[in-house]
C-alpha cells in the first residue's frame, strides 16, 4: 500500500529557496564569477625608470644680521644726574666743618645740601652748586609751613583747630604738618584764596632772588594765576606752579629760626670775602606771634612724622618739613627737607634736595640732614661762641603788595 506524503509541496519549495539563498550569500565560487564577469585584468609591470643624478644645488645663506645694541633709556627715577655731587664747586669761603659734614651726609645720593647761618644769612656751604643754582624745582610739601602761617595770620585756623578731612580722618595744624596731609592744606589754601597764598609765598622770599652777590642764583617763579592742574588747592599742598631753589628755602627757614628776620643770603668765596662779610637784612616778617603756633608742627614732623629720620637725640631739637613729588619742570623725582636746629647758639638752616638717582623722597632727604646735624653735634659746633658781625639794615623793597 503506497504511503502518501502529508508534507505540503509549498513547504518543500520554500526550504529549497532558503537553502539556495544561503549558498549565494555565503560564498560564490571564483569560477562562477569568472564565467559571469570575465577574467580580471592583469596588472602591467611598472616601467623601468632611469635614474639620473640630480644636479648639485648651491644654497646661498642670507647674511646674518647683527642685533643692534640696545640704547640705554635714561630713567630719572633710577639714574643719577651727576657722578660726583661736589665736583666743580667753588667753596673757598665755605665753613670747612659744615662742608665736610654735608658731603659725607649726602654720600652717593644725587642732590644738593645748603647750610645757612640763621643769625646772619651767611651761606656756610653749598654742596652741588650745579643743582642749587638752577632756576628752581617744585617745592612739593615744603610749601605747607608758609600756607599754615598764612592761615594762622588770617585767623582761619588756630593750632588746635580740628579740620575734618573725611568721615574717619581729622587733623589739627600740628598733626597735619607732621603727617604732611595734602587734603588739609588744599582746603586751607582754598579758604585763603590764590592772592593770599601768593602773598605769603612772596613774604618769605619765594619767587625772588634770595641772595646778594651770587651771580649764578636764579629767582625761581610764582604763578600769575591759579595753576591749571588742581588750582590753588594743588598750589597749597604740592607747590604746583611754583619754582623754588634750595637757597630760597634756606633763607625762609633761617627767618623762622631767628624769629622773623629775612636776610639777604651772602656766600663768601674766599677768606678775604669772609673778612668783609656784613649781614644784610631784606625785611622783617612780623611773624613772632605765629612761631609758637607753627613750630610744634615742625617739631612733630621730626619727632613722629615724615621726617623721623632726622631725629637722633635730645641734644639738639630739629624742626623741619619734608617734600616728595615729581618735578613739574623736568622729569625728575624730588625729595626735599627744609629744616633748622633750635639750639641756644649757632642756629643753622639746612636744606636738602635730592633729584632722581636711587629711589628717594622727603624722608630720605631728612636722613641726610640728620647726619649733618649729628656730625656737627659731635664736633661741638652748636656750642661754640661765634662772633656775629654788626647788621647793616637794607631798606626792603615792596615785594608783596
Percent of residues in β-strands: 5-15%
**Unreliable runs:** 1-7, 30-38, 390-401
CATH class: Alpha Beta
Biggest sheet architecture: 5 strands, antiparallel
**Content-based structural category:** alpha+beta
Measured as a percent range, the helix fraction is 25-40%
**If classified by CATH, what would the architecture be?**
3-Layer(aba) Sandwich
The tally of domains stands at 1
* Number of discrete helical segments: 13
SSE arrangement, N to C: HHHEEHHEEHHHHHEHEHEEEHE
Based on CA atoms alone, the radius of gyration comes out at 45 Å
Number of strands: 10
General shape: elongated
Mean pLDDT: 85
CATH topology description: Beta-lactamase
- Full CATH superfamily name: DD-peptidase/beta-lactamase superfamily
Read across the widest sheet, the strand sequence of neighbours is 2-1-9-8-7
Amino acid at each position: 500500500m503506497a504511503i502518501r506524503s502529508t508534507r505540503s509541496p509549498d513547504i518543500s519549495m520554500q526550504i529549497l529557496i532558503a537553502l539556495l539563498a544561503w549558498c549565494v550569500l555565503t560564498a560564490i565560487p571564483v569560477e562562477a564569477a569568472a564565467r559571469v564577469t570575465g577574467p580580471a585584468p592583469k596588472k602591467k609591470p611598472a616601467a623601468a625608470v632611469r635614474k639620473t643624478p640630480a644636479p648639485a644645488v648651491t644654497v646661498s645663506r642670507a647674511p646674518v644680521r647683527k642685533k643692534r645694541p640696545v640704547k640705554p633709556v635714561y630713567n630719572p627715577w633710577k639714574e643719577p644726574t651727576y657722578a660726583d655731587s661736589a665736583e666743580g664747586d667753588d667753596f673757598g669761603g665755605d665753613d670747612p666743618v659744615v662742608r665736610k659734614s654735608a658731603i659725607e651726609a649726602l654720600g652717593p645720593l644725587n642732590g644738593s645740601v645748603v647750610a645757612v647761618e640763621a643769625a646772619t644769612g651767611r651761606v656756610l656751604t653749598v654742596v652741588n652748586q650745579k643743582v642749587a643754582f638752577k632756576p628752581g624745582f617744585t617745592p612739593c610739601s615744603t610749601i605747607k609751613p608758609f600756607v599754615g602761617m598764612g592761615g594762622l595770620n588770617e585767623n582761619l585756623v588756630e593750632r588746635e583747630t580740628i579740620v575734618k578731612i573725611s568721615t574717619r580722618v581729622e587733623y589739627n595744624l600740628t598733626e597735619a604738618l607732621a603727617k604732611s596731609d595734602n587734603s588739609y592744606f588744599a582746603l586751607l589754601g582754598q579758604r585763603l584764596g590764590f592772592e593770599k597764598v601768593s602773598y605769603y609765598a612772596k613774604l618769605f622770599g619765594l619767587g625772588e632772588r634770595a641772595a646778594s652777590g651770587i651771580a649764578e642764583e636764579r629767582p625761581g617763579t610764582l604763578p600769575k594765576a591759579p595753576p591749571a592742574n588742581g588750582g590753588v588747592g594743588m598750589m597749597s599742598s604740592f607747590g604746583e606752579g611754583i619754582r623754588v631753589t634750595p637757597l630760597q628755602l634756606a633763607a625762609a627757614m633761617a627767618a623762622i629760626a631767628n624769629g622773623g628776620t629775612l636776610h639777604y643770603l651772602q656766600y663768601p668765596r674766599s677768606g678775604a670775602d669772609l673778612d668783609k662779610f656784613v649781614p644784610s637784612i631784606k625785611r622783617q616778617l612780623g611773624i613772632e606771634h605765629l612761631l609758637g603756633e607753627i613750630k610744634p608742627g615742625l617739631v612733630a614732623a621730626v619727632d613722629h612724622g615724615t621726617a623721623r629720620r632726622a631725629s637722633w637725640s635730645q641734644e639738639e631739637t630739629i624742626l623741619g618739613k619734608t617734600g616728595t613729588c615729581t618735578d613739574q619742570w623736568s622729569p625728575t623725582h624730588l625729595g626735599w627737607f627744609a629744616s633748622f636746629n633750635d639750639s641756644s647758639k649757632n642756629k643753622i638752616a639746612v636744606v636738602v634736595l635730592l633729584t632722581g638717582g636711587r629711589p628717594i623722597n622727603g624722608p630720605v632727604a631728612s636722613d641726610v640732614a640728620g647726619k649733618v646735624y649729628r656730625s656737627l653735634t659731635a664736633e661741638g659746633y652748636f656750642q661754640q661762641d661765634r662772633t656775629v658781625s654788626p647788621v647793616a639794615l637794607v631798606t626792603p623793597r615792596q615785594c608783596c603788595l
